[in-house]
Amino acid sequence: QVQVVESGGGLVQAGGSLRLSCRASGRNIRFYNMGWFRQAPGKEREKVASITWSASNTAYDDSVKGRFTISRDNAKNTLYLQMNSLTPEDTAVYYCNRDPPIPSSWGQGTQVTVSS
Description:
Layout: E1 3-7, E2 10-13, E3 18-25, E4 34-39, E5 46-51, E6 58-60, E7 68-73, E8 78-83, E9 92-98, E10 110-115
Parallel strand pairs: 2-10
Antiparallel strand pairs: 1-3, 3-8, 4-5, 4-9, 5-6, 7-8, 9-10
């Protein structure tokens, strides 16, 4: 079973950038497709980006396309999300998980707050 710890969130002004990290343990993630998900207050959790196990393919939700970049370092068992041109609509708790997600592998998430 994969356990994850997300980090890198914080408070940033609109237009700013953050880089999220997701450190996995318990099992090597190199064979899994992975994703970043987010949940805003009062909304359901949604997938914002995904990456195949080999990093050969990535996909993004339309709301973040062109602004966010997902990447991975399998040697470090770590997933990343570079977020640029942030807007208040990006405010949410961000999570990583396998794609599709495994219910027992959700971490605590990392809070991203974008002020206008």
